[in-house]
Amino acid sequence: EEWDVGVERERRRQRNRKRTRERETEKDEDVDIPSRRVLITGATGLLGRAVFKEFNGNNWNAVGCGYRRAQPRFEQINLLDSIAVHDIIHDFQPHVIVHCAAERRPDVVESQPDAASQLNVAASGNLAKEAAGIGAFLIYISTDYVFDGTNPPYKETDAPNPLNLYGKTKLEGEKAVLENNEDAAVLRIPVLYGEVERLEESAVTVMFDKVQFSNKSANMDHWQQRFPTNVKDVAAVCRQLAEKRMLDPSVKGTFHWSGNEQMTKYEMACAIADAFNLPSSHLRPITDCPVVGALRPRNAQLDCSKLEMLGIGQRTPFRAGIKESLWPFLVDKRWRQTVFH
Ligand SMILES: NC(=O)c1ccc[n+]([C@@H]2O[C@H](COP(=O)([O-])OP(=O)(O)OC[C@H]3O[C@@H](n4cnc5c(N)ncnc54)[C@H](OP(=O)(O)O)[C@@H]3O)[C@@H](O)[C@H]2O)c1
Asked: What are the DSSP calls for 221-273, one per residue?
């Protein structure tokens, strides 16, 4: 196994050297490379893809890291391999690192707690230390699940009290980051949706088939209050925060960002049906507290006034955002034709 690791590391070094050469050739050809560099972990994931696009499209030189899905677009880095992490940070010398990689499925965290803690806590602390070593600004993406949801809305200064192991590992990750890098930022966000590769990729988009297949009645949670947030908006907030920090070194610490439309999953499902002109009478609201799976906070609404005071923020209306995200997964093409042609 050690031999494998060695081989993998050498291959990665070769790829890095090749990329550096390519970048240098580009320079020779007078291609305009933006001077601000950002490294994005989890760039193959739901949020990371949006963050990569946002920086890449706004005059930043962006390098994305992934793991299982990295090839061919992104660097393949196992964040548990501290040498690989050290190497890429020292090769690329980013000004900013946006750390999106995590195990974020509460039920998977409960069933594989050690692996989840390695990634969410240990790897985050290590990344923070490496960022501090070269003076890069690290943004650690965290979650509203650090709160117990009994006393919303929550400010950055309110005491966290995670109910499930996922929330606990993310909170420990926050601490590991700030202990290793006092100039870092923590950005807490709630449930995400956006352009998905598969509907199951987001807790919001996964409802679409239950909405579409209206011949079958479907139970929908109507207990937990949520604030679905578009990944493009979070990505814009990350870039704005990074750009603000480049001008003002006092920008650091914990921040909250969230959409401002409060909805249960049942209400999101109805809004989705409405956005596509589909029936919703087969959807059934369940008002009891869910009994299966990891515990969830009733209402962990995030107060976003700290970022708003800095002039940072972007909010896409849910109906517009969800329609854009789900459009490719619409089954009834006839509907498309009647409405749009
Ligand atoms: N999704 C939500 O609703 C939500 C809500 C609140 C907060 N958050 C937070 O937002 C952040 C982004 O979440 P997301 O939904 O975009 O996650 P995601 O879609 O599940 O993506 C996870 C990412 O982590 C990478 N990764 C996994 N193991 C790795 C390893 N050992 N080394 C390097 N990379 C590894 C994956 O790479 P490969 O796939 O290439 O292996 C993938 O890019 C997370 O910090 C999460 O806690 C998410």
From this structure: E-SSBB--EEHHHHHHHHHHHHHHHHH-TT--EEEE---S--B-HHHHHHHHH
pLDDT tens for 87-137 read 999 999 999 999 999 999 988 999 999 999 999 999 999 999 999 999 999
Cβ–ligand 1 contact at 231 (below 6 Å): no
**Nearest CA residue ID for atom 36, ligand 1:** 42
Query: Which atom of ligand 1 is closest in space to residue 118's alpha carbon?
Result: 31
Q: Which of 47, 97, 143, 229 to mutate to test the pocket of ligand 1 (most atoms within 8 A of CB)?
A: 47
Distance spanning both ends of the chain, measured CA to CA:
58
Residue 299 DSSP label:
B
Q: Is the CB of 44 under 6 A from ligand 1?
A: yes
Residue 68 alpha carbon to ligand 1 centre in Å: 11
Q: Give the DSSP per-residue string, 15-72.
A: HHHHHHHHHHHHHHTT----S-EEEEETTTSHHHHHHHHHHHTTT-EEEEEESTT-TT
Distance, in Å, from the CA atom of 112 to the CA atom of 56, rounded to the nearest integer, reads 34
CA 231 to ligand 1: nearest atom: 16
Q: How far is the CA of 169 from the centre of ligand 1 (A)?
A: 13
The whole-angstrom separation of Cα 112 and Cα 120 is 12
* pTM exceeds 0.85, yes or no: yes
Maximum Cα–Cα distance for the chain, whole Å? 64
Integer Cα distance of 251 and 311 in angstroms? 12
User: What pLDDT sits at residue 168?
Assistant: 97
Q: What is the mean pLDDT of the chain?
A: 92
CB of 88 sitting under 6 A from ligand 1? no
Return d(Cα 292, Cα 28) in angstroms, integer. 59
Ligand 1 centroid to Cα of residue 341, in Å, is 38
Structure tokens at 60: 């930043």
Q: What is the tens place of the pLDDT at every residue in 255-304?
A: 999 999 999 999 999 999 999 999 999 999 999 888 777 789 999 999 99
Query: Is 80 a pocket residue for ligand 1 (Cβ < 6 Å)?
Result: yes
